[in-house]
Specification:
Bound molecules: zinc ion
Structural class: alpha/beta
CATH topology of the largest domain: TIM Barrel
Largest sheet: 8 strands, parallel, barrel
Number of helices: 15
Shape: globular
Number of strands: 21
Amino acid sequence: MMPERPIVRIAIDGQPLLELDAEEYVKGCLAAEMPASWHEEALKVQSDTIRSYGLAKMAERGFVYADTRDQVFDPPKRTARTDAIVEATRGIVGLYKGRIAATFYHAACGGHTLDDWADYLRIAECPCGKPQNGHGRGMCQYGAKALAEQGKTWREILDYYYKDIEWVGNYGEETMTKTSAHIQRIEPWMQQALVDLGSNWVKFVNPPAGPDPMPRIPNKIVRIHTDKIDDQFVPRGEQGGRDFVRHMLPQWRERPWATCYSLANEPDCNSNGGLANLCAYSLGATREADANGIKVVILDLPEGNPGDNETGDIGVSAWKLQQLAPAVREAVALGHYVGLHAYWRPGVEGPLGRWHALGRIEWDVEIWRQLGIDISKLKLLVTEWGVDGGIAPEKPGHAPKTGWLTLCDPTTYFREIAEGEQRARQLPWLKSLLLFDWGPESEWVSFGHDEGAVRNIVRAIDPLGPAEPPPTDGPTDDEIRNLSWNYVGVAYNPTHAFPTYARAHDLGAPLSGTFDHKGVRIQAFMGAIVKCVLAPVSDNTDWRNTTHIKW
Ligand SMILES: [Zn+2]
């Protein structure tokens, strides 16, 4: 969908609030906050942190200061180069637990950064080589410069200073469309179509080496075709996984803009031996990737199980997924991705179907959850998604493997994609559904999604409206009940648990305005942040100067 561009209100001393388009605001800050001559990747990092920080402050208090109380806004410093950097990163923000994060940054940390202001900050050993200048939290500007000069990408630099933050396009909260593209051949219309769709991910097969082909889509999977060599690696287990990563590194390094890289595609997972090899191979690959500072997508299992159609038997899935659980557990712990394929079969099951489609993926994840894997940290990608054209009967006048065009009419197909999208938005661990495929290679020619088809998909998904951010973790109802209110402070409470408590205690509607409880004024703000103070508050209470208490 077409996101509405957010507005930023800027407080300049002695002037009325200045209202500006968010990108104009970022442009006005970038050259003031970082020299325009610095490395492009460092400037991208700065651009994304300015945007996130500014929009987080807007959500928190409705305006930003134009000076170092927030970030310096000085439009006369703008240059063509800094404007171009902002354009290339337009709309990209960092989300922490579904909300835009205040991505603190500073000039120089003095050697290591601090993590005590927010859960998404890291203690990073920093190569800035400068005495401390600033608060030392989040991105260190001189450190980012040094890392960029060492060849790190904007994403690697951001991950160096922040953790558990998801970098997404289209201002994050405005659109979080999960439907996206598995692209075999990049065509010029595709990036804009993905922006219009609101997609944050895209998968490329054999993309050209060199610069980022779609800078406005923040997350990319790169798969280099390895079908002919996978048998040299997967059967050799852990060592095979390590060797695979070492073998692929030169090609992956030529595409450094990828978020993550695919391992073997649709490996053997139908025998105990195959599963044991695949588990060990995946472990070896994730460990080797980790040692090289990159992320991979493990598994990429084919959809469905042999013989499980309509048997109602979850046993086959459990047998498989149990044996792969050690690899999944480690991938989750190290922040790598898990890939699974899913297709629906007209006449057999729809996009939410339990055998080969999204319902099946939910089933798989439920098994992993029962095996003790931390699903709240799982990052799952449906790396192939769509109608299973492979089962299409040959029809007169159609080539073999004629795909969705012969299996269901386009109207049904677009509606079903929207149905899958709607369900996917309920699944916080599911990051993207990558429609197979766009810009097709010859064998799969009739699967192709051309520009017209993709416009229809945008139209089908648009009525769903902006996706709600997923519910975030927070205190339990019990913790809230036992909370002592005998402090002066501000309690951040981005949770649905608080409204439950507030309803139970007849506190009115906690997600709007202010209300009193036992002499405590509680202010709910932007539907997310609850502020509590003991002292009476007035419209002039300066909330910024109250003590912050983390749950
Ligand atoms: Zn530093």
